[in-house]
Specification:
Layout (H helix, E strand, L loop, with lengths): L1 E2 L12 E6 L3 H11 L5 E5 L13 E5 H18 L6 E5 L9 H4 L6 E4 L4 H51 L3 H13 L4 E10 L8 E9 L3 H6 L3 E2 L7 H9 L3 E3 L12 H7 L3 E7 L7 E7 L7 H39 L9 H17 L7 E8 L2 H8 L1 H18 L5 E6 L2 E7 L11 H23 L3 E3 L2 E3 L3 E8 L6 H18 L3 E3 L2 H22 L3 E10 L5 E11 L5 E2 L1 H11 L2 H21 L5 E5 L10 H11 L7 E6 L7 H14 L2 E7 L6 H6 L4 E4 L1 H5 L5 H16 L3 E4 L5 H9 L4 E2 L13 H12 L1
Parallel strand pairs: 2-3, 2-4, 4-5, 5-6, 18-19, 21-23, 23-24, 24-25, 25-26, 26-27, 27-28
Antiparallel strand pairs: 1-3, 7-8, 7-12, 8-9, 10-11, 11-12, 13-15, 13-18, 14-15, 16-17, 20-21, 20-28, 21-22
C-alpha cells in the first residue's frame, strides 16, 4: 500500500482518502495524473495482497479484475458499516464485453462504473458525487445514532423509574429504600454510579455544610466513598451535587471531561471512566435536604426526556421518604400511646392496665395449653401519710419521693417479679410462685401456706426498705407502708378480683396499724360494709337524713348554759342509727365531708338565729374539717353560710383539732385569721392529745382550749390529771385564752376543775346532746339550778 507522489500523501491525512486497486501501472499513472490538480484527495494504492480491514477509506476505485478479487471484503465492510456507505467506482474499458456482469452489481456492491479512457473533469465529477454520497450517509448515520442513543437513554431511564417505583412499594425503612434505589439504578447498562446524600450541618443550616452519603452503589462506588462534597461557600468542592442542594434545582454535567465544576475530582473521574452526571435535589417535608446523584459512562446523557424521567424518580423518592417518615412518626406515636396506656409517666413503671393484660394473657395461654394458671401473690402497697409530704414540701418533692419509692420496691423483687403503680401513692407488686420450692406431693393447702409465707417475707422486706430515710430537698424523711396481700388463683382466678382483695386487705392493715394484712372473707365483709356505707352517705345527704343534736356548754361554778356544741347524728330511712365515729372517717375519705360540713353550718346557723330571736343568748360551737379551711375562698364561704342563716360571726365558736393544724399549714392559718377578723372565735378541740408547740399556739387566733376528756377522767384517780389540767389552765391564762373541760361526768370532777381554774365545762354532768327543741327548757332548768 503506497501513496502516489502526484497527489496528497496518505501520511499527511488531508482531505478524502481514496483507495485505488488497479492492476495496470499505466492506468494508475493516468488516474493519478488526471487527479493531480485536486489537493483535497489522498490516493492510496492497494497492492495485490492488501485487504480492506486495516485501512480507513472514504472511496474505493477498482478495475474489473480487482473488483472480482475484492468483492467479498467490500460486501463484508458495507454490512459492518451499516448506514455509512463506502462508495465503489469501477473503471472499465470501452469494450462492450469488458464490463461483464458489473452493471448487475450497481446499488449492491458498486455505486458507479466509469469507462476508460476518460477526462480529468469527468473523473473528478464522478469522484465528487460519490464522496458527497458518503457524506450524506455519514450524516444519516450520526442522526440515527443520536436517535438510537436517545431512545436507549429513555428506555433505560424509564425502566429505572418503574423498577424504583416497585422498590418504594416494598421497602419499610429509609436505609433499605435508599440502598435499594441506588443498587437498582447502577444495575442498568451505562449507569456507573448512583448515590444519595443529605446535608449534614451541626448549626442547623439548610444551605451550608457537608453532604453525608447514606447509600452508594455501582462499579464506581469507591469514587463516591473517597470524595467529599460540600454545600455553600466556597463554590469549589460543591460540584453539581452541592449546587443541587443549594439551589433546589436539577444540575447536569453533560461532559465531565470538560465541566469546570468537577475540577477537584477531574483525575478520579477520568480514572473511573465517568462521562456525565445528573444531580437531583431531594426535598423531604422534614429533615435536611438531600441529593440523588447518578453518573453515566457516556457523555451527553441526561438531557431532554431522560432528565424529566429521572426528575420524576427523584420526586417519587422524596414522596417515598416522606411516607416512611410519616409511617415512622405514626409508629413513634403508637409507641408513645402504648407507653402512656400501659406505663406510669412519673415512675416509668407498668400500670394497672398492663398488669391486668399480663394476667389475662398468661391465664389464657395456660388454659389453652391444658395447664393451670401460674400462682402468684399480689401485694397492694399504700404509702402512709404521703399526703403530709405533698402538703408540707410540695408536689415536686412528692413526685421525687414516689420515684424513689418505686426504685426501692423494685430493688426488693426477684427478676421474675414485677411492680406496677396503681396511682397516687399506691403500688402493686406481683410475686410469682417458685415451683422449685414446692414439695413433691404438695397439696393445695400447703401451696397456699408456702406462697403466703414468701409473700409475707417480701412485704416485710418492702416495709423495712421504705422505712429508711429519704433525702428530699436536703432533709431526711421517713415513711411507712401498709400492705394487703391476696393469692392468685387460690382466693380468686379473676385478676381484678385478686387485686381488689389485696386492696381490701391493705385498708385493714392501715386501720390496724400493723403494716401487713392478708385477705380473708371477714376482711371482704368489712370492706363491703364500708362500700355500702359510702353509697348510703350519698343517699343520706341527698334526702336529709342527718340531724343535729346540741350538747350544752356551761359555767363550771354555776352550771349556767352559755352555748351549745352541734353534734351530727344520722338515722337512715330504715330507722338505723349510725355512729359518727363510723361514718365521719368514710365521709372524709370520699370527699363528702365538705358538703356535710356545709349542711351542718347552714342548719346550725338557722338554729342559733332562731334561739336568739326567742331570747336565748347562746353561742354555737361547730367542728370544722381541715378541707373546710383550705383554699383561698374558704373563709368567705364559711362566713356566707353563717350569714345566710341569719347568724352573726360573734355567735360562733369554730372548733379545730391539733392534727388539722398540721395539714396545709399556711392555707389553714390564713383562713382562720380571715374568719377571726370577721368576729368568729376559734376553739382548739381535744387539746393535749396531739402536739402543739407554744409558739404555734401563740401565733394562731385561738380563743379557747378544750381540755381532752382523757385528763378529766384522771382527776379522781391520781394527781397527774390535776397537774396537767392546772398547767393547761395556767398556760391558757398566760396566752389570754379560756379553757373548757370536756367529758365532765361527776360533780367531784366539776368541783375540782373549779378549784384548778377551769371556768367552762361540757359533759354528761349537766346533759348529753339533746334535740334542738329540748334546749330551751334545759337552759331554763340549768339557770334555776345555778341561781
Amino acid at each position: 500500500m503506497t501513496p502516489d507522489s502526484g497527489v496528497a500523501s496518505a501520511t499527511e491525512d488531508t482531505g478524502a482518502r481514496v483507495g485505488v486497486a488497479i492492476r495496470s501501472d499505466g492506468d494508475y499513472r493516468l488516474l493519478a495524473r488526471l487527479l493531480a490538480p485536486d489537493d483535497g484527495l489522498t490516493l492510496i494504492r492497494l497492492q495485490q495482497d492488501d485487504g480492506l480491514d486495516s485501512v480507513r477509506l472514504d472511496l474505493l476505485i477498482v478495475d474489473a479484475l480487482s473488483f472480482r478479487r475484492l468483492r467479498e471484503p467490500i460486501m463484508r465492510r458495507r454490512e459492518e458499516a451499516g448506514l455509512v456507505v463506502l462508495p465503489v467506482l469501477v473503471l472499465a474499458s470501452q469494450n462492450k464485453g469488458a464490463t461483464g456482469p458489473l452493471p448487475a452489481e450497481l446499488g449492491s456492491s458498486i455505486e458507479d462504473i466509469l469507462r476508460l479512457p476518460t477526462t480529468g473533469p469527468e473523473l473528478r465529477a464522478r469522484i465528487s458525487n460519490l464522496l458527497h454520497l458518503r457524506a450524506l450517509s455519514q450524516r444519516q448515520y450520526l442522526a440515527h445514532d443520536a436517535t438510537r442513543r436517545e431512545l436507549s437513554g429513555l428506555s433505560r431511564a424509564l425502566r429505572t423509574l418503574h423498577a424504583c417505583n416497585e422498590i418504594m412499594l416494598r421497602k419499610t425503612t429509609e436505609e433499605g429504600l435508599l440502598g435499594a434505589i441506588c443498587r437498582m439504578i447502577a444495575q442498568f447498562e451505562g449507569y456507573s454510579l448512583a448515590w444519595v446524600g443529605f446535608l449534614e450541618d451541626e448549626t442547623g443550616s439548610q444551605s451550608a455544610g457537608n453532604i453525608r452519603k447514606v447509600a452508594i452503589a455501582g462499579p464506581a462506588a469507591e469514587f463516591a466513598r473517597s470524595t467529599r462534597v460540600e454545600v455553600g461557600a466556597p463554590a469549589r468542592g460543591q460540584g453539581p451535587s452541592g449546587r443541587a442542594i443549594t439551589t433546589g434545582e436539577t444540575q447536569i454535567a453533560a461532559d465531565l471531561a470538560l465541566d469546570a465544576s468537577v475540577e477537584p475530582w477531574r483525575e478520579e473521574i477520568r480514572a473511573w471512566g465517568l462521562g456525565a452526571m445528573i444531580a437531583l435535589p431531594l426535598k423531604p417535608s422534614a429533615g435536611p435536604p438531600g441529593v440523588l446523584s447518578v453518573f453515566s459512562a457516556h457523555s451527553g446523557d441526561f438531557e431532554g426526556e431522560v432528565r424529566k424521567l429521572l426528575e420524576r424518580l427523584a420526586a417519587n423518592l422524596t414522596f417515598g421518604l416522606d411516607k416512611l417518615q410519616m409511617q415512622r412518626e405514626r409508629e413513634r406515636q403508637a409507641d408513645e400511646i402504648r407507653q402512656l396506656a400501659y406505663h406510669d409517666p412519673l415512675t416509668g413503671l407498668p400500670n394497672r392496665r398492663f398488669l391486668l393484660q399480663q394476667f389475662h394473657q398468661d391465664h389464657t395461654a395456660r388454659i389453652a395449653q391444658g395447664g393451670k394458671p401460674k400462682a402468684a401473690a399480689v401485694l397492694f402497697i399504700d404509702i402512709n401519710d404521703f399526703k403530709l409530704v405533698n402538703d408540707a414540701l410540695g408536689h415536686v418533692a412528692g413526685d421525687h419521693m414516689l420515684r424513689s419509692v418505686s426504685q426501692r420496691i423494685q430493688g426488693t423483687l426477684r427478676q421474675r417479679d414485677w411492680v406496677t403503680r396503681q396511682g397516687g401513692d399506691e403500688f402493686i407488686a406481683i410475686m410469682m410462685d417458685n415451683p422449685r420450692r414446692a414439695l413433691a406431693a404438695e397439696d393445695p393447702e400447703q401451696s397456699v401456706r408456702r406462697l403466703a409465707e414468701a409473700a409475707e417475707t417480701l412485704a416485710t422486706r418492702i416495709i423495712r426498705i421504705l422505712r429508711r430515710p429519704f433525702d428530699i430537698e436536703g432533709f431526711n424523711h421517713r415513711i411507712g407502708a401498709s400492705i394487703g396481700i391476696s393469692l392468685f388463683p387460690y382466693y380468686s382466678a379473676d385478676p381484678e378480683s385478686v387485686i381488689s382483695q389485696a386492696d381490701t386487705a391493705m385498708y385493714q392493715a392501715k386501720q390496724a396499724g400493723n403494716g401487713i394484712a392478708f385477705y380473708s372473707p371477714e376482711t371482704a365483709q368489712r370492706r363491703q360494709r364500708r362500700f355500702t356505707l359510702e353509697a348510703r352517705l350519698h343517699h343520706a345527704l341527698e334526702h336529709e337524713e342527718f340531724s343535729l343534736h346540741y350538747q350544752p356548754l356551761w359555767e363550771t361554778t354555776t352550771g349556767r348554759v352559755v352555748g351549745v356544741e352541734a353534734l351530727l347524728r344520722w338515722q337512715d330511712s330504715e330507722g338505723a342509727r349510725i355512729s359518727p365515729g363510723e361514718f365521719i372517717p368514710v365521709a372524709e375519705e370520699i370527699g363528702l365531708i365538705g358538703p356535710i360540713g356545709d349542711w351542718v353550718l347552714r342548719t346550725a346557723a338557722r338554729q342559733i338565729a332562731q334561739w336568739r330571736r326567742d331570747g336565748l343568748g347562746l353561742y354555737m360551737s361547730v367542728n370544722l374539717a381541715v378541707s373546710q379551711l383550705q383554699g383561698p375562698d374558704a373563709a368567705r364561704h364559711i362566713a356566707d353560710l353563717a350569714a345566710a342563716g341569719g347568724a352573726a360571726p360573734e355567735w360562733w365558736s369554730l372548733e379545730v383539732t391539733e392534727d388539722m393544724l398540721m395539714h396545709d399549714v399556711e392555707s389553714v392559718e390564713h383562713s382562720m385569721r380571715e374568719l377571726s377578723a370577721l368576729g368568729f372565735r376559734f376553739a382548739l378541740d381535744d387539746f393535749g392529745r396531739g402536739y402543739s408547740s407554744l409558739a404555734r399556739l401563740q401565733s394562731l387566733p385561738l380563743h379557747t382550749l378544750k381540755i381532752d376528756k382523757l385528763f378529766v377522767d384522771e382527776l379522781a384517780s391520781n394527781e397527774r390529771g390535776d397537774s396537767i389540767i392546772a398547767a393547761i389552765t395556767d398556760m391558757a391564762r398566760n396566752l389570754s385564752m379560756e379553757t373548757l373541760a370536756e367529758g365532765i361526768e361527776t360533780d367531784a370532777q366539776r368541783a375540782r376543775l373549779v378549784e384548778l381554774g377551769c371556768r367552762w365545762g361540757q359533759g354528761f354532768w349537766l346533759s348529753a346532746a339533746r334535740p334542738p327543741e329540748e334546749i330551751p327548757s334545759l337552759v331554763e332548768a340549768a339557770a334555776v339550778v345555778g341561781s
